[in-house]
Amino acid sequence: MRRSFQTLATFKTLATFAISLSFASGAFAQSGDIEGWEGLRWGPTKATVMKTLQRFHAHECARADTSCAGAGVVIENYSFSGVPFRVLLTFGPRDALTSVSMTAEEKRDSVEKVLAQLTNRYGRGGLQSEYDGDEETLRTKWNWNKPPGTCVLESEEGSGVFTVTFAAKR
Fold first, then answer.
1. CA–CA separation, 91 vs 100, rounded Å?
2. C-alpha span between 132 and 9 (Å, rounded)
3. How confident is the model at residue 16 (pLDDT cuts 50, 70, 90)?
4. pLDDT tens-digit profile of 49-95?
5. What is the rounded distance in angstroms from the CA atom of residue 78 to the CA atom of residue 127?
6. For every residue of the chain, which 3-state class applies, written as one string?
7. What pTM, to 2 d.p., does this model score?
8. Between 2-26 and 110-122, two packed helices, what is the crossing angle to 10 degrees?
9. Neighbouring residues of 7: CB distance < 8 A, sequence distance ≥ 6
10. pLDDT per position as a tens digit, 29-58
11. Pairing relation of β-strands 59-60 and 40-41?
12. 130: CB partners within 8 A, 6+ apart
């Protein structure tokens, strides 16, 4: 029961932060489109991506590496808002870049830093929260739909990680 109250308190704190951040940054937010990632528009080939992102030490995902299943290119220790991420770049038909998934450890203030940066860049995102009382887990998701792409920030309390995903709209 005590854990439930702690989880609920954390949820209230996170929700209050998200709401206040949305209002505070709304007047000053840039509402940019999600046209790609790190200067790459959606659609370049793996070879182009590898060349363009070599400054981040991008490398192909080894087939035996199950931690990057489905991804074609991996970047270790990519910094976004001062938070280190592992980045997986996925390619679709005709070897075209279709999505980028960034995963980081959920350390003190890391989600808040990233949320602030995304809100500043794309404006106020849609917020969805779900509390699972049986598992005592809070799942929070912010969505930005800015043609020709989307961005989703997902956090699950207790998992120790959170994810930011950029994807081309289909």
1. 9
2. 14
3. very low
4. 999 999 999 999 887 788 887 789 999 999 999 999 999 999 998 88
5. 25
6. CHHHHHHHHHHHHHHHHHHHHHHHHHCCCCCCCCCEECCEECCCEHHHHHHHCHHHCCEECCCCCHHHCCCCEEEEEEEECCEEEEEEEEECHHHEEEEEEEEEECCCCHHHHHHHHHHHHHCCCEEEEEEECCCCEEEEEEEEEECCEEEEEEEECCCCEEEEEEEECC
7. 0.79
8. 30
9. 131, 136, 137, 138, 157
10. 355 778 899 989 999 999 999 999 999 999
11. unpaired
12. 138, 139, 140
Dihedral-angle region of residue 134 (phi above 0 means left; psi in -120 to 50 means alpha; beta otherwise): alpha
Structure tokens at 83: 């938070």
Q: Positive or negative, the Cα torsion across 159, 165, 169, 170?
A: negative
For residue 144, give Cα distances in angstroms to 8, 10, 84, 118, 127. 25, 23, 22, 9, 9
Average pLDDT of the residues of the chain:
82
Say if CB 121 and CB 21 are below 8 A apart.
no
Which neighbouring-strand residues pair with 151?
Answer: 144, 166
pLDDT reported for residue 63:
77
Cβ within 8 Å of residue 36, ≥6 positions away: 42, 97, 149, 166, 168
